[in-house]
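[agent] plan:
  1. take the single chain provided in the ticket
  2. run structure prediction with default settings
  3. attach structure tokens to the ticket
  4. add a short note for the reviewer (M.T.)
[agent] executing step 1
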Amino acid sequence: MSKLNLGPVKAFNVMKTCFGRFEDVGVSKVEFKNYKRQINLFIGEYDADMVVKYLNEKKKHSQPNLSYDYITDEENRLKGLFWCDDQAKHNYHVFGDVISFDATYRSNKYSMVFVPFTGIDNHHCNVTFGATLLASETADTYIWLLRVFLKAVGSQPKVVVTDQDPTMKKAISVVFVDTRHQLCMWYVMHKLSLKVFMLFYVWHFRIHCILKYMAFCTLLLFF
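[agent] step 2 finished; step 3 output follows
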């Protein structure tokens, strides 16, 4: 159940639904919580090591073409983790002319940013070209990310779409030298709507002040 990101209480309720009654589950809700606590204590501070080990084992035994890379900080803590499997590479080979990567997804436990590389297939559906977890959003981190992505897929995209992030822009200019950088249309329209609203508000306020001034001047003419 932990693989489905279910807590002990929800996992217990799922088991109850599967077996029909609470009595048929075989354990209590408290025992579910205790077992979850024991797992967390066993993992401790080695969760990042377990992820890297899992990717390494997967590359050895089931997906030899799996690409992954990671970096750590001065205290040997995970700073960035990138992975790209066979399906992602195939997607990029077929639909990788235009890619997008977005850093707006932040996990709630580790405060790391989830950065997926995505595109659109011939059915106008999203496809994935790779994914990353980042602990910081600096230009150096994005340069590392784009370099390992380029190493995994083998070629630069023709167009890359991002939001207006200066660190992304710098990294793209360093790594994707032959790629055209475009801003996301949603981001452009969002900013445009805000600016148009502010412009409308300013002009509305000015017109309102002018009308009040004209009304005041008109009253002065009668006295």
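[agent] step 4 note for reviewer: The chain has three domains: 2-43, 47-183, 185-223.
[agent] ticket updated
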